[in-house]
Every structure is written in structure tokens, then in C-alpha cells.
Amino acid sequence: MSEKIIKYPCPIRRAGTGPKHHFFGYYNKSTWDRSDRYLLANQVPMMDADLQADLEAEIGFFDLENQDAFTVVDTTTTWNWQMGCQSQWLDGQPGRQIIYNIRSQNTQSPYPNLGSRIFNIDTGTSRDLDLPIYVVAPNSQFAISIDYRRLWITHETIGYCDAEPQAPLALAPTTDGLRYLDLNTGEHQLLVSYADLKSFHHVPSMDKAIHWVSHIEINPASSRILFLHRWTERVKDETCFLHRLITINPDGTDMRLLECSDHPLPQLAEDFDPSAVGTFDYEKSEYQISHPLWCDDNRIIVWGPHQGSIHYHLYTDADNGPVEVVGATVLDENGHMTFSPVNKRWLLSDTYPDSETNQRILFLYDMEQDLRYDLGSFYTDPNLRKENRCDLHPRWSRDGQLVCIDSVHENIRQMYIIDVSELVGK
After folding, report:
1. 66 secondary structure, DSSP code
2. How many domains does the chain contain in total?
3. Model pTM?
């Protein structure tokens, strides 16, 4: 082991003791509320299941100051194992309010029967919106929406299945793409279409491909949006996915291309066997751009290739802006990375399972000292498939003293809280 990698186990405990399974989903949102008392979670009766349109998950929260008592606030059938139902605290609104995706009765929506709900925990009242949300702006004034039914076809792991079979999807339609949703009025509009994205710095590999967007994030000032534009001719084989990192204003202006990983695809050969690809080979590809997140209002951390080498990179949001390698010698594989909300010295991330041991590493990286502190190693069942897997997806508490992960290392899908206060306070 490198002398720059230090084993530093920290106190860890499971959230809750009930018989049901719990998870939050993605790494890019805090599961804690502003007070760090309440912990958002999805509650399900099983550790693993193939997703169906009628499969329910309960939405609720743990009260960390009341013996982790779990309160259920609603149920939903719009969820997946990777992202849950995209539940998020509305920090810019008074009191304790959350938003999450639901199955609706609105057939006139751009995404029929998919919507979102704002629930006020303090009053017990709710309000429904005509679009599902992907990410909410930090000021809680707007959200960005996409069609999760499209994702079910292009990238099943993060999509929602439909009750009825879908018609074949257009490859790059002018009528669909990223949508802006006003959380106060419910009004929405197309921000940028897939046709727009296909024509923006066009490359020939886009011509026969189907296009989609994922990994959408809004900067702390709520003034810029990042996303990954992806395209492929073979949706069932992720090694054929191509990627670009793009930013845009909330009104659709000033779109910028920060990185493109267009590359040859020998996998498109007729005799290529996608089943021969390992579960996590895609995440370990030398071409993948993944897991981008704002460091601050102008910089983005991401795993991906730049100028012929793949690393954790820190981009400046500008045309031809500077790109900095982060942790060149110790951060050598893809992970779900976020900076501490109170001290950008600390970068939290994880690894995908080792192909031999099935262990995943949770770690903190010290940006000032170029040191990696391994907080723990967590086993995952190798029988879990791509769509049903359980990534650690580490998330910070608001005060930067705790970390929450999803894990199956005890043969149950649960959330665990790790106390990193001693390390970050050194």
C-alpha cells in the first residue's frame, strides 16, 4: 500500500433497528436536514427485487435524536435502487419540506403519469407538480426534470419502468430533453432538446445513436447547471456509451462543452458479446466521464479522461478553462465524490467492488496533504445485478462531521453513519 494511503477506521453505526430495509440512493444530495437531526430514507420490505411499475417504496425519515424512530410520510412507485425516488430537502423553503417523485394521473404531462410531490412534514400538507424532478436548485426555486421512461430504455439502472409498453423512442427529438420546472408555480419549459445537444459540437458517432442526459447538478448559487450528455448505438452494452460534460444557464443560454470522451467502439462489431462484460467493467473504463459534482460555483469535480489520461479532475466552468488532476497517485479509480460542505480540504469518495474480494473502500482524501484515509471496507454480494446493486454513495452531514452510506455488507440493505469528526478536526 502506498505511504499516502492510511487506514483510519472511524466509529460506525447502523441507522435504525427495524426489520425492514433502508436506503437513500445517490451520493449527490444530503440525506440530513438542515438541523442534522432528521435522515431521509426509502423503506422497503426486501433487500433485492426486480423493479416493476407497481412496486412500492415508503418515503420517510429517521429521527436521530429519538432512538432513530422512523416516520413514514408517503409511498411511491417511482424509484430505483440507485437513486431512490430522488427525495430531497427543500432548504430554501421554510420548515421541514421534502420533494420526491410519484406516479400521477396526469396524462397530459410531457411525461404522462410521472410527477413529483412537495410534502410539508410540519403541516402534513402536500402539493403535486406535473413533472418528475432530477435535482432541485439549492435555493429551492426550480428543479430540472427529465423523462425517466427514456432512461429506463437507455440506462435502465436510473430509469422508471412504465406500466405499459412504450413506443420506440426517437433518437434525438426536438420535443424532449432537459426541462426547467418552477417549484412555486408548477410551470415548466424545455431547456435544451436532444436535437440541440446532437448539433452542439457534433461528432459523427452521434449520427445513428440514441441520446439522453444524466448526472444533472446545480451549483450552490443556483446559477449554473452541469449534466452528462450520453449517446450510444447499443443501449444494452454500457461499454458502448459515449459521454460529454456540459454546463448551461437555467434559462438555456451560454452552453459550454467542458469535456468529450468520444472514442472508437470495437464493441459495435456484430460478434461482440455484452454478457462477457463484468458488472463493474463500465465504471472502470478508461473513457467514462462520470459522477460530476460542483465543488463551488465555478469548479466541478469529476472522474474522467482529459488529454489522454483518466483521473479525478477539477474543471473550471469556462470554455477552455484550466483542468487540474486531483490525487494523481492515490485516487486511481472511479468513485462517488463530494467535498465537505464546510471545508473543501476534505474530499469524500468510495470505490467500486474489487473483482476478487468484492470489497468496496470508503475514504477521505486530504486535498492539502495529498493523503488518502481509508475509513472502512464493505463487502457486497457479487450476485446483485447492475440494476439492483448497492453502491456506498457516501453523503455528508450538514456540519461535515458525519458520513452516511448505503450498504449490504451485513446481508441487509441499510444505511450506516460514520463519525469522521476526529479526522476532519485534526
Report:
1. T
2. 1
3. 0.94
